[in-house]
């Protein structure tokens, strides 16, 4: 059975997020969709799987249905495939943040860094004046990363703010290029750095997954596998399942890191 996996997020004001939980769960459940969706006042974040028809219906509801009333008009969305269902159940959870950083100054609904498309990413990170920064945790970095990227050495994304305060300096690091799995952590991290006085902050639009989808392997600066938050564990170029992931398994609590 070939299934469609959809990873999506958008930072957008959802003051009614609590009332969205039950109807969104029902929309997914009645179509046989499984996976994890987070709702918070700052937006939505999820990865789900189901038949191609079921996932297409969900995406249509998110973008154009009555539930979100047109508010998800800038939904960051990417698709991949799975041979078997990569999730055991369906979860729609309410959270304080759709990706946890714990710093109110980091508000992507107010400001974010400059998006860089996968097609322009290699040229940016080739610049000797650009600090290339992986915003993911140490387990993810160990599975794969971009050549020359700085590993922040963190156990969870919530520790990124302390790494930034301890290691990064606006006077020294004039241009910073950040990346993460699907783009969401970079939006939060870029908002944090801008609030702390950094002026040139770039992030890979669509994250590593979009880069692996669009950039030919022969031109790629990516090495290894990209950790994903389901039972496939890791993906490689062309968003194919990566062999290294099968050996690594999932670290305890990894699913809470969210995309």
UniProtKB/TrEMBL annotation:
Q: What is this protein called?
A: tRNA uridine(34) hydroxylase
Enzyme Commission no: 1.14.-.-
Q: State the Gene3D superfamilies in the record.
A: 3.30.70.100, Rhodanese-like domain
What does this protein do, in the record's words? Catalyzes oxygen-dependent 5-hydroxyuridine (ho5U) modification at position 34 in tRNAs.
By its UniProt entry, which Pfam families does this protein fall under?
Rhodanese (PF00581), UPF0176_N (PF17773)
Please state which protein family the record places this protein in: Belongs to the TrhO family.
* Reaction catalysis annotation: uridine(34) in tRNA + AH2 + O2 = 5-hydroxyuridine(34) in tRNA + A + H2O
Sorted alphabetically, the keyword list is: Oxidoreductase, tRNA processing
SUPFAM superfamilies linked? Rhodanese/Cell cycle control phosphatase
HAMAP family recorded for this chain?
A: TrhO (MF_00469)
Which class of enzymes does this protein belong to?
A: oxidoreductase
Listed CDD domains: RHOD_YceA
- Boundaries of every Rhodanese domain copy: 126-220
Task: Give the encoding gene's name.
Answer: trhO
